[in-house]
Each structure stands twice: as C-alpha cells, then as structure tokens.
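Data deposition worksheet. Section B asks for the primary sequence of the deposited chain exactly as it was used as input, without tags or linkers unless they were present during the calculation. Section C holds the resulting structure in token form. Section D is free text for depositor observations; keep each observation to a single sentence. Incomplete worksheets are returned to the depositor.
Section A, Depositor: J.P.
Section B:
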Amino acid sequence: DDFTLFMWKPEQEKKSIARMTGHQQLVNDVKFSPDARLLASASFDKSIRLWCGKTGKFVAVLRGHVQSVYQLAWAADSRLLVSGSADSTLKLWSMDTKKLHTDLPGHGDEVYTVDWSPDGQRVVSGAKDK
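Section C:
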C-alpha cells in the first residue's frame, strides 16, 4: 500500500489527472473546500494534507493530532477546516496560516464525525463517548 490519492475529471476522461502521495498510513477522508481551491485529506498517520483543488499539487501538512484523523469538514467560507480524531479532540485549522487555529477538547473518546453548520457559526461532532 502506498496510501495514494488520485484526482479525476470523470466527464472528460477515465485517466487520473493527479496522483497525490505523502501520507504514511491509510487515508480516511478527503474533502474539497467549498470554493474548490483546496482539497484536504485525513489519515491514520495523524496528519492532514492540503492539496491544490485544481492540480492536486501538495500545498501543506497540518500536524497536531496525536492519533488517527477520522473526518474533516470545511467552513462555508473555506477559511477554516475542522478535524475529528481518535485522540478525542476536534481541531480547527486556519487556511490563512495553514496552522492550528483552535483546539476543541470535550469528548471522552474517539471523535468519528464532524460537520459545520451552513452559516459557519457552529461545529457538531459525534464520538465514542460512554
């Protein structure tokens, strides 16, 4: 396994237009930003990688989780990304700085699912809490 992502333009051709590598373990989630400028990928390697939404070229790596990253969600304005992790935290990432913006602790166990409200004011998460 080489933990590769591929990007296609399926209405134009069956051959992929980009092969994106860099994750060291299973890739768990991929999401285009609402403005389509970025693509984010989450991995069991504890990292999030950012890619150009048009070309698939590598942009940045976001590190801060201490266990696997399960899911990602973009704010409607594409300025923040939220991630949920096996480390029981949610993290908000700034696309201006490509760094951690806010740490959201609170869960007692792995965070499996995250999402933003359409108005960008709230984040919701689901976890394995007992």
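Section D:
The chain has a mean pLDDT of 94.
The longest strand covers residues 27-32.
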